[in-house]
Specification:
By secondary structure, this protein is α+β, with helices and mostly antiparallel strands. It is built from 5 helices and 8 strands, in the order ααβαββαβββββα. The chain has one domain. A hairpin with a 3-residue loop joins β7 and β8. α3 packs antiparallel against α4. The relative contact order is 0.20.
């Protein structure tokens, strides 16, 4: 960052570190031990679609790669959905005990998009959890911030803020958590959550 950028208050965006996704399996162990939340086996990558052949080819390559991975492990094929805001969600499903495999799939999707020049289209990655009381929780990775945050949806587009703050306290030593609570965006209707 240059002198002029400093004077004008411009900051350099944080570069996403996709390898931090591999911290999720150990964070899942901490989360289960402290709160009883267990992985559901579902995770998703959200990105803004781009028109054009190159992006469509990358999206198809990613789907084929994950479908082949699922065929080898006996998991469900990859599902692609679009939400009401026009974002695309690529959902991968595994057995709930296969968090490492799930994270590997999600990392592969992210890496394929970044390697082909579509990194700016990435919005977030989400891994879903639930507890014995059927409460839902997502750990969300924000690409543009390089941080995680918990999202605990309730019915009627409400969220359990107290639970989210509790989860922050539990995982503060396991993951780089987003400190600015205004950036804990709700991901209503996220597939798999």
């Amino acid at each position: 960052m240059g002198f002029l950028d400093t004077i004008l208050g411009r900051t350099k965006p944080v570069q996403p570190n996709l390898d931090v996704l591999f911290q999720l399996p150990s964070a899942a162990v901490t989360l289960e031990a402290a709160t009883g939340f267990k992985p559901t086996g579902s995770g998703s990558v959200c990105f803004r679609p781009v028109e054009g052949r190159a992006f469509a080819d990358v999206e198809n390559d990613v789907r084929e790669l994950l479908d082949m991975s699922g065929a080898k492990t006996g998991t469900l094929p990859v599902e692609v959905t679009k939400d009401s805001f026009g974002f695309t969600w690529l959902v991968s499903s595994h057995m709930s005990s296969e968090v490492e495999d799930l994270v590997t799939d999600l990392h592969a999707v992210n890496s394929a998009l970044v390697d082909n020049g579509f990194g700016p289209q990435l919005l977030c990655t989400l891994v879903a959890f639930t507890d014995d009381a059927q409460r839902r929780l997502g750990l969300v990775y924000l690409y543009k911030r390089g941080t995680f945050y918990p999202f605990a949806p309730l019915t009627g587009e409400r969220r359990d803020s107290a639970l989210e703050l509790q989860i922050r306290g539990v995982l503060e030593n396991d993951l780089k958590l987003e400190q600015d609570l205004s950036r804990w965006f709700p991901v209503w209707g996220a597939p798999g959550l």
